[in-house]
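User: Earlier you gave me the apo prediction for this protein. Now I'd like the version with S-adenosylmethionine bound, so I can compare the two side by side. Same sequence as before, with the ligand SMILES added.
Assistant: Got it. Here's the input I'm using:
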Amino acid sequence: MGAAPQGARSEREAAAWVRGMFTRVARRYDLANHVLSFNIDRLWRARTVRRVRPILERPGARVLDICCGTGDLTLALARECRAPIFGSDFCHPMLLAARAKGAGAGLFEADALRLPLRDASLDLITVAFGFRNLANYRAGLAEMRRMLRPDGMAAILEFSEPPNAVFAALYHFYSRRILPLIGGALSGSRDAYTYLPESVRKFPSPEELADQMRRGGFEQVRY
Ligand SMILES: C[S@@+](CC[C@H](N)C(=O)[O-])C[C@H]1O[C@@H](n2cnc3c(N)ncnc32)[C@H](O)[C@@H]1O
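And here is the structure of the complex with S-adenosylmethionine:
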């Protein structure tokens, strides 16, 4: 199972659609993110950084932020780590935006399902709002597991549907009615912001993802 944009008939087509979508929104991606989340996206990333700080403090820690996009998490990690942070993404315009923000040193273009890194070579892998877009979640987890050292850590920051019924109703109204309008107006690409809530709806629940991670060989999984 993985991201399945409408009309995509294979994993290859799904990945091509996702890459094309981020190519179209890259220029206004950050603005749309901050406006649509009321700037809370910054707090979510900051919280992720706090969770992984013990790994960032390891001397010479090797850290890769996959699906790094415009580099917001890459930069937030870099502020807390002495060693350089690597960032990868398969969408060139998103990487150009990351470079323009100063995340350039460790950036490279690569598919998160086939990364050019050795087995057991990383202390930490992070991914913010990118995992949900992978065309195959099991393959994405296997690739992360392959690159992690035995004492390494993976951190996935991702959306899920709210468990509370009242909040869920508010969220559904906002994400289906308001978000595509504002996201479309800001980015010029309404389909990207129609896809967003749809992809969250189809994404495994936190429990399901945790289960999938345990089955994929991850230990001490928490969310
Ligand atoms: C929603 S953006 C998140 C960007 C950034 N991590 C952030 O926190 O804002 C998702 C990113 O995942 C990238 N992506 C999706 N599927 C990918 C894949 N298979 N390989 C590499 N990058 C991928 C997209 O190109 C996009 O830049």
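For your comparison, keep in mind: The pocket of S-adenosylmethionine is lined by residues 15, 18-19, 22, 67-70, 72-73, 89-91, 94, 111-113, 128-130, 133-134 (CB under 6 Å).
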